[in-house]
Amino acid sequence: MKKLLLSVFAAGAMLSSQAQHIDYEEYDLDNGLHVILHQDKTAPVVITSVMYHVGAKDEQPDRTGFAHFFEHLLFEGTKNIERGEWFKIVTANGGMNNANTSDDRTYYYEVFPSNNLQLGLWMESERMLHPIINQVGVDTQNEVVKEEKRLRVDNQPYGNMLKALKEQMFKNHPYRWTTIGEMEHLDAATLDEFMDFYKKFYVPNNAVLVVAGDFDTAQAKTWINDYFSEIPRGADIQRTIAKEDPITKPIEATWEDPNVQIPMIISAFRTPSMKTRDARVLDLISAVLSDGKSSRLYKKMVDQDKTALQVGAFNYSQEHYGQYIIYGLPMGDNTKEDMLNAYDAEIKKLQTELISEREYQKLQNQFENRFVSSNASVEGIAHTLATNYLLYGDTSLTNKEIDIYRSITREEIREVAQKYLNPNQRVIIEYTGAK
């Protein structure tokens, strides 16, 4: 019976994997714009999205926040879309749109009924070719960004957690500042500086266009050519990766936050690029330590020992470097040292003992479920295709990623924990209330 059940499970997993195979077509326009098409006629919707290879790491140290600022500014209006009309056009045609920015890229997208693909393509071509960048728009969005920072960062408990960590983790690389940046940098910037940033990065050869959903391929290609092929290619962007010296002894710092009542103890390790296999192993380690109430850190520190009110760990992977972050809120009289010792004890187990076969199977199930969930909608698929092309340089990862996770062994989990998660390689932040 046991063998029969295992066979049924294996067959189900294989069918699930086959059902999740994502077909796509990709090609380049002469101006360097990369195009990816994914047809899915199961629902009458279509997504047009553009991901630009520009994020916070492409800014200057005294002009941070530009990429996030442009996430807002490029909704202001274009030569053919009057100021304030962008969102009205989208909603009037049954659509929705949004954008987001990271340290590595900026992503814009629209979701429309499938009969409005042409409108979505026209609007994104307008954003790329004809945006109106003037002082009125800059001043307006400056206030919008300031309010966002107040709401989501400055007045949010632990809202500056990443800022506190980045400043210690990176000394050379532009990952040392946050995506939202510093408001005084935006205040000091001139209109010419904003224009120069736009002309450098928001060009077809620094972007990928993804169309996903219910559309006719031949018609889509015609419209893409009509709206995007005449956009001039930009100058090739030369990027250099600032190197960080290895961390060889603990770096300790404090951060005061008036919104905090209970201190947070953070232990973080610099890790390799998201493109490496080790980064994916660290994803699995994160799940072992911190994915749900049955995870090791939660069971030990919250359930059993009552060391922490809350504890978690996550692998923060990025294009050039990553960070593996463990955080927790101490319970009662437990100290920073108590928290760090508890973190270290669980890491030590990973470094010296193989996880059990049962834990390993649980991990496989978790990541299979994540893979299915992330591709459960055409919006998710569009984002995955754009990310794999632009940041990983390999669109085919869309279908191969789950097999990479499946191939990671228990021995690799132990080896990667030994390689990166050592006490002498970490940054320790005591994030406390203002004194």
From TrEMBL:
Signal peptide start and end residues: 1-19
Residues covered by the Peptidase M16 N-terminal domain: 35-179
Source species, domain of life: Bacteria
GO biological process: proteolysis
Gene Ontology terms, MF aspect: metal ion binding; metallopeptidase activity
Annotated keywords: Hydrolase, Metalloprotease, Protease, Signal, Zinc
The keyword Protease appears for this protein: yes
Pfam families to which the protein is assigned, alphabetical: Peptidase_M16, Peptidase_M16_C
Database matches in PANTHER family: NARDILYSIN, NON-CATALYTIC MEMBER OF PEPTIDASE SUBFAMILY M16B-RELATED
Protein name from the UniProt record: Insulinase family protein
